[in-house]
Design goal:
Blueprint: H1 4-7, E1 21-26, H2 40-46, E2 52-57
Antiparallel strand pairs: 1-2
Length: 64
């Protein structure tokens, strides 16, 4: 029996989870802002003094 992933032409191609990078703002209280941003510039415009724009992977710590 063939798997559906191999025979389904509409299935999405595999994406490397190490490349699933999100942009966020680390707030002064040490927590991430409760939203995501589409660009570093958008995050920087939203951030308040004392907050930091960060890029992170929500799936794994792949930088090790």
């Amino acid at each position: 029996m063939k798997s559906a992933a191999k025979t389904d032409p509409d299935s999405s191609p595999w994406e490397d989870p190490r490349e699933d990078i999100q942009i966020g703002v680390l707030m002064a209280n040490g927590r991430l802002a409760p939203r995501h941003f589409t660009s570093l510039e958008e995050a920087a415009a939203w951030a308040q003094p004392g907050e930091e724009v960060v890029q992170y992977n929500t799936i794994c710590e792949c930088d090790r």
